[in-house]
Design goal:
CATH architecture: Sandwich
Number of domains: 1
Order of helices and strands: HHEEEEEHEEE
Helix content: 10-25%
Distance between the termini: 34 Å
Strand content: 25-35%
CATH class: Mainly Beta
Shape: globular
Radius of gyration: 16 Å
Number of strands: 8
Length: 130
């Protein structure tokens, strides 16, 4: 007997597919209007996420150090090793208009991040790895 698989079951969720990069299948989070879009993205372990600045304003991608899995590698645009280092050199982590930043998520869990210059405006996001 031949069975067909329903289309919904065969496709990843919309949040997983949100903004695939032009260079491949990496999910893309855009930075525009002082927000990360999508604000929450779910990916599989080993996925590289690309943040692309689609605005005229520079932004950062900075993990909240105490809001990532304990065994996960810290990430921030500018390749800082700690959140305090990123906060102490904001200019070194700015992603300019049309530029991008990537990070590969290996450890399952929830990763919260923000834009240092626009944190008070609520520019924050979340990557869920499962």
């Amino acid at each position: 007997m031949l069975r067909t698989l329903g289309l919904a079951a065969a496709l990843p969720s919309a949040a997983t597919l949100a903004g695939c990069s032009a260079s491949g299948n990496a999910p893309v989070v855009t930075m525009q209007n002082f927000a990360f879009q999508p604000r929450r993205l779910t990916v599989a372990p080993g996925t590289t996420v690309e943040w692309t600045n689609d605005s005229d304003d520079p932004h950062t991608v900075t993990a909240y150090e105490d809001e990532i899995p304990e065994t996960a590698a810290y990430f921030a645009s500018g390749d800082f090793d700690t959140e305090s280092a990123a906060r102490n050199d904001v200019g070194g982590g700015l992603v300019g208009a049309g530029d991008s930043f990537t990070h590969t998520f290996e450890v399952p869990g929830t990763y919260r991040y923000y834009c240092i210059p626009h944190e008070s405006s609520g520019m924050a996001g979340e990557i869920v790895v499962e």
